[in-house]
């Protein structure tokens, strides 16, 4: 960080020496140079002081064992310093974690599991301590420094630091009217409109070409900014009067909207051919861009697509479930799909549809399960057994779709037992040992998330998993080593027989190597196992010594009694 600030200062100094106003360059270029210079000057003044206490509290909670009780004072400090003191903040953090899972294809690994558990600890603590989280005024929940952050700087009181996500990437100012461009980036409306008016066709932040000029209001971010302002005693930024909150200002053209309406008429007809054609076109339109996904949902397509999930025509069924998958990419559409009663139909396709339809049904369930409450509904719908079946008998793509859906569903504790009872453990063991090993990563990730459940622990033990896990700890890839060690930690907890089996299979040498050269999580798991195994070996030695001493004593007594 220090080096970064040094470079920033040098760049600002070098740029300020250039008399660009005397150069024969366009006014637009001069404006851009001045803007960059202003950004460097702002960056120079914004230095984050390391918070050692926050670091230590996070590290302590992050590294604690699952059965150890957390320190309430640590949790209180974390909730306050991370500003996770209300429903909106906690939900935003939860959504960010789930977006990380989505971006990783459903298998972000151990880090996500740890972060998810950490967030749950904070969430449970905050809800226990503050039952009235919805209250508009939450001064009692704010960090001690917040009282001085309620107003702009006065005397020694400092104004609150604006979160980076609330600043426009162009102006670096708090956004008044945030809008989203086709690349998914958010900007202040006036800034991006000026950028586009100057003839640019790229996203300023990513430099990607904009697929269309659509500017969609970011209502969620606007609401969060308003809430942050209220919490910190700041007047919410007023949107310019010329700005209109119309969602479709630059979205779909009238011709495109008319086309969508025609497709919906076909979709609701009794003609199977019309339904098939319309579902196929909606599938493609929903795949194309975010504007289409919003427009199709707002036109009322979701209930019609749900209705034809039960059609006997396999092709129509495939188009319908894939269209729902594409529509579910839009966060607002997830709730509409669930509330339209889509899950039973999707599960039926997962059971009875063509292989491609089953694969896309699994992917749809994964997409919907990003929302926490949907995990419960999907798990209760009977989706888990057909997902396990697809994991067992599907194509490579089908197996991966099923694995990502199962992994995500099993983040919810209530789904773990259902997954074990659906027979997932024998399937996972087969995937771990099949030639090619194309599903080892996914299988181990699911095993690792299940292993804490008592039924899973019993099933893994019954499946004779120990030799496979020990081999993976010794010869697997880094991620696989840490997941195999994580499974072994749960398997050996309080189980002398598993400890004896692991020790006999030579796991100690592998664990020593993992403790020295593994990932951070792998090192921790290896250390836990080495500690348990060392205690076990020590106990075995003491027990053997006692047995030998008793035997020798018995022998001496018997000799003494002989005439």
Automatic annotation (TrEMBL):
Residues annotated as signal peptide: none
GO molecular function term, any single one: ubiquitin protein ligase activity
Biased composition (Polar residues): 143-154
Residue ranges of the region described as Disordered: 132-158, 537-563
Biased composition (Low complexity): 542-563
UniProt cross-references to Gene3D superfamilies, sorted A to Z: Leucine-rich Repeat Variant, Zinc/RING finger domain, C3HC4 (zinc finger)
Keywords noted in UniProt: Repeat, Transferase, Ubl conjugation pathway
Pfam hit, one: ARM_PUB
Keyword Transcription regulation: no
Gene Ontology biological-process annotations: protein ubiquitination
Domain U-box: 161-235
Reactions catalysed: S-ubiquitinyl-[E2 ubiquitin-conjugating enzyme]-L-cysteine + [acceptor protein]-L-lysine = [E2 ubiquitin-conjugating enzyme]-L-cysteine + N(6)-ubiquitinyl-[acceptor protein]-L-lysine
PROSITE patterns: ARM_REPEAT, U_BOX
InterPro entries: ARM-like, ARM-type_fold, ARM_PUB, Armadillo, PUB12-19-like_N, RING-Ubox_PUB, Ubox_domain, Znf_RING/FYVE/PHD
Superkingdom, natural source: Eukaryota
Renumbered ranges of ARM repeats: 300-342, 341-383, 423-465
Pathway where it operates: Protein modification; protein ubiquitination
EC number(s) recorded for this UniProt protein: 2.3.2.27
Role of this protein: Functions as an E3 ubiquitin ligase.
Protein's UniProt name: RING-type E3 ubiquitin transferase
């Amino acid at each position: 960080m220090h080096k970064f600030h040094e470079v920033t200062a040098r760049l600002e100094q070098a740029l300020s020496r250039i008399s660009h106003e005397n150069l024969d360059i366009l006014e637009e270029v001069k404006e851009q140079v001045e803007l960059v210079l202003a950004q460097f000057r702002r960056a120079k003044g914004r230095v984050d002081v390391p918070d050692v206490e926050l670091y230590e509290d996070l590290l302590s909670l992050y590294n604690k064992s699952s059965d150890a009780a957390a320190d309430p004072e640590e949790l209180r400090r974390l909730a306050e310093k991370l500003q996770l003191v209300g429903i909106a903040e906690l939900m935003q953090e939860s959504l960010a974690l789930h977006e990380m899972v989505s971006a990783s294809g459903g298998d972000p690994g151990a880090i996500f599991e740890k972060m998810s558990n950490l967030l749950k600890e904070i969430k449970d603590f905050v809800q226990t301590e503050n039952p009235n989280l919805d209250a508009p005024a939450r001064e009692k929940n704010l960090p001690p420094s917040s009282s001085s952050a309620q107003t702009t700087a006065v005397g020694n009181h400092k104004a609150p630091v604006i979160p980076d996500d609330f600043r426009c990437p162009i102006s670096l100012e708090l956004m008044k009217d945030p809008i989203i461009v086709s690349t998914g980036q958010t900007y202040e409306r006036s800034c991006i409109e000026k950028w586009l008016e100057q003839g640019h066709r790229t996203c300023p932040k990513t430099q990607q070409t904009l697929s269309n000029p659509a500017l969609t209001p970011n209502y969620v971010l606007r609401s969060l900014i308003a809430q942050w302002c209220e919490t910190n005693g700041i007047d919410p930024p007023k949107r310019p009067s010329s700005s209109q909150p119309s969602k479709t200002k630059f979205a779909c053209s009238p011709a495109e909207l008319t086309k969508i309406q025609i497709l919906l008429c076909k979709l609701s007809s009794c003609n199977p051919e019309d339904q098939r054609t319309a579902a196929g076109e909606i599938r493609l339109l929903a795949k194309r861009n975010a504007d289409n996904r919003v427009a199709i949902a707002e036109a009322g397509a979701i209930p019609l697509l749900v209705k034809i999930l039960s059609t006997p025509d396999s092709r129509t069924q495939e188009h319908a479930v894939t269209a729902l998958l594409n529509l579910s990419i839009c966060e607002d559409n997830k709730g509409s799909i669930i509330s339209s009663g889509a899950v039973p139909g999707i599960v039926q396709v997962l059971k009875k549809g063509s292989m491609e339809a089953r694969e896309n049904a699994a992917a749809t369930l994964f997409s919907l399960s990003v929302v926490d409450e949907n995990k419960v509904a999907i798990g209760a719908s009977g989706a888990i057994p057909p997902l396990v079946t697809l994991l067992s008998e599907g194509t490579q793509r089908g197996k991966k779709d099923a694995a990502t859906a199962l992994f995500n569903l099993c983040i919810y504790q209530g789904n773990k037992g259902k997954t074990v009872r659906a027979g997932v453990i024998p399937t996972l063991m087969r995937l771990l040992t099949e030639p090619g090993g194309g599903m080892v990563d996914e299988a181990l990730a699911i095993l690792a998330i299940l292993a804490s459940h008592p039924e899973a622990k019993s099933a893994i033990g019954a499946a004779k998993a120990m030799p496979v896990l020990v081999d993976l700890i010794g010869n697997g890839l880094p991620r696989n080593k840490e997941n195999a060690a994580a499974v072994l930690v749960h398997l050996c907890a309080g189980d002398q027989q598993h400890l004896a089996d692991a020790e006999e299979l030579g796991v100690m040498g592998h664990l020593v190597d993992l403790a020295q050269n593994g990932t951070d999580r792998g090192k921790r798991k290896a250390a836990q196992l080495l500690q348990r195994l060392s205690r076990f070996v020590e106990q075995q030695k003491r027990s053997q010594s006692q047995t030998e001493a008793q035997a020798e004593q018995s022998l001496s007594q018997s000799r003494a009694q002989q005439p």
